Amino acid sequence: MEYNLEQTFLFKDDGEIPNSKLPLLVYPSIMEDNFSNFSELFRTNNWKNSWTGGVFSYHHFHSNSHEVLGVISGQAKIMFGGNHGLSLNIYAGDAVVIPAGVGHKHIEQKLAPHSPSKSAI
C-alpha cells in the first residue's frame, strides 16, 4: 500500500518547546473508512505503548520518542509547535507523525455520534 504525503510542517525552538529539525507529517484520510485498522497497523509495525484516548489539553512534547496519532473517530483541533505554532483540524481516518520534541495539545475535540469517549482520537 502506497501513501501520498499530503502536508509537512516545520517548527523552530520557541524557548519553551524545543520542536525538531524533522517535519510534522500529516496524512489526511489515510484509513478512509476503516478507522479501526489503526490498531492493527500500529501492532503490525511493532509500534508499542499505544492507547486509545485523547491528546492532553496542555502543551507537551516527548523528548526521546516520536509519536503517531491515528484519529479513529470524531475530530479535533490540535495545536502543534507550541504557543506560536499552528492549529490543525484533524478528522477520523487522518494520521499525524509527531517527531520527538514537537509540542502538541488539543484545543477542541468532538466525538462522533454514539462514540465512546475513549475513542475520540
Automatic annotation (TrEMBL):
Q: Which intervals hold domain Cupin type-2?
A: 53-107
- InterPro entries in the cross-refs: Cupin_2 (IPR013096), RmlC-like_jellyroll (IPR014710), RmlC_Cupin_sf (IPR011051), UCP019307_cupin (IPR014500), YjiB-like (IPR047121)
Q: In this record, what's one Pfam family?
A: Cupin_2
Task: List the PANTHER family.
Answer: BLR7373 PROTEIN (PTHR36448), CUPIN TYPE-1 DOMAIN-CONTAINING PROTEIN (PTHR36448:SF2)
Q: What is this protein called?
A: Cupin domain-containing protein
Q: Which organism is it from?
A: Aquibacillus halophilus
